[in-house]
Design a protein that fits this description.
Layout lengths: L10 H4 L5 E3 L2 E3 L6 H9 L29 H12 L6 E4 L6 H6 L7 E5 L7 H7 L6 H8 L5 E5 L2 E3 L6 H5 E3 L1 H5 L5 E3 L1 H4 L4 E5 L6 H13 L1 E6 L2 E6 L3 E6 L8 H6 L2 E4 L6 H16 L1 H7 L1 H17 L7 H14 L5 H16 L7 H12 L5 H26 L3
Parallel strand pairs: 3-12, 3-13, 6-9, 9-12
Antiparallel strand pairs: 1-2, 4-5, 7-8, 10-11
Helix pairs in contact: 3-16, 12-13, 15-16, 15-17, 16-17
Length: 408
């Protein structure tokens, strides 16, 4: 890490005894959990960092996720979605210029490793664990029996869906090269490429209905089938769905809104000190992105390791009946009809617990994730509609009692 003036260290960092700051750099190896690390880097000051000579732009260097100023709720939501894909993804809602797209693209350096199939048909060891050797192709069954791997560990990728994408781009279609040679062959679409990855859709509220419906169906089922004449193929599509939108440009259909697990309503930074620090970091990044990446390389490395560890701990997470009943009571009080509320709330609470280095979910975990999981789930239209239906049912029962049951 580059040398930093001790006067520029935030008060929050000084209160953490496990961290040190001196003339040779910062030592952050004593961070106790991923959530503590997020608290620290949110307020870190780079005012006195010296700009070094640029080394060139051979690659696209994303802005470091840990360098984003403020927006703690957004950071937590995105990290929890990486730790536990069962939550249903994240929707970022906010005005332009609040860092939604930058935040999602900056996740690249934090993404964990997942098994990738070495087979054309996508066979994995987990298929054999669930369904035996008959669940994979003969070649993979033979390799598995001989003790050879059928998959390798590879980093999760960020797959972006262009706003102008057509339905054939999304789900796949006939391979034009094969068609020229009088052959029929399907090519994979973006949804198949997003399997075990993150699918990011910017301006999700502007997508055409056929595209968004295809994404929702594939996300819900974990797979989808493409048929083009006599040719058909089924692809896996188990991805984390992340969307962003500016409400000034239009709202999402209720069906789409319900599919997103966590919802973050973002606003611009309020404190002048934070806005100034954000400007300094962005200005340094525009002049020398390598320097900003280097300034946060230790935080990024630790966060990535903590995310990988949390994913491995997740199957051991415990949600006891007492905590579950508290969550159900909360959902009942809020009059939320969708059962996805429970799924998101409980899975997010488990992810938060393991991110904090624990396997047992507590009341505080529910408290932390409830606003993210439950906001924007109530519908005044549905509430009024159900109230009218209940009133009609009561009137109908009353008349049935008077006309029919009374005669009996």
């Amino acid at each position: 890490m580059e040398t930093m003036n001790t006067d520029s260290v935030s008060e929050e960092e000084n209160n953490i005894s496990s961290l040190t700051n001196n003339d040779t750099g910062e030592n952050i190896t004593g961070v106790r959990s991923l959530m503590e690390l997020i608290d620290i880097v949110t307020g870190r000051n780079l005012q006195n960092t010296q700009i070094q000579e640029d080394g060139g732009y051979a690659d696209v260097i994303p802005f470091p996720f840990m360098a984003i100023v403020g927006q703690k709720e957004m950071k937590i939501a995105l990290i929890l979605s990486i730790i536990n894909p069962l939550m249903g993804g994240v929707l970022l809602i906010g005005p332009r210029g609040t860092g939604k797209t930058i935040a999602v693209r900056s996740l690249i350096d934090l993404l964990p490793d997942v098994p990738r199939s070495l087979c054309f048909y996508g066979c994995l060891e987990e298929d054999i664990e669930k369904g035996g050797l008959d669940a994979v192709c003969p070649a993979c069954a033979k390799k598995f029996a001989m003790g050879e791997p059928i998959s390798v560990l590879d980093r999760v990728r960020l797959v972006e869906l262009p706003l102008n994408a057509k339905i054939d781009d999304v789900i796949g279609g006939l391979d034009e090269r094969a068609t020229i040679n009088d052959r029929l062959r399907l090519k994979r679409g973006i949804l198949a490429q997003a399997d075990r990855n993150i699918l990011y859709v910017d301006e999700v509220n502007l997508l055409s209905d056929d595209v968004i419906d295809a994404i929702l169906d594939a996300s819900a089922q974990g797979h989808y089938t493409v048929r083009r004449g006599p040719v058909s193929a089924t692809y896996r599509s188990r991805f984390v769905f992340v969307g962003s939108m500016n409400p000034e440009e239009g709202n999402l259909r209720p069906q789409i809104m319900d599919r997103f697990g966590l919802r973050v309503v973002m606003q611009g930074l309020k404190e002048p000190k934070e806005r100034l620090e954000a400007y300094r970091r962005v200005n340094l990044y525009l002049n020398n992105p390598y320097q900003v990446v280097n300034n946060f390389k230790d935080e990024t490395r630790i966060a990535k390791e903590e995310i990988q560890l949390a994913r491995e701990m997740l199957p051991k997470a415990i949600l006891n009946d007492e905590i579950a009943n508290l969550g159900l009571k909360l959902i009942s009080k809020l009059k939320i009809e969708s059962l996805r509320a429970e799924i998101t709330l409980f899975e997010a609470a488990k992810a938060y617990a393991v991110a904090d280095g624990r396997i047992e979910v507590t009341r505080n975990d529910l408290l932390r994730v409830a606003p993210l999981a439950l906001r924007l789930r109530r519908s005044s239209f549905i509430t009024d509609y159900l109230s009218q239906q209940n009133q009609e049912k009561e009137e109908l029962d009353k008349i049935l009692d008077e006309v029919i049951r009374h005669q009996e």
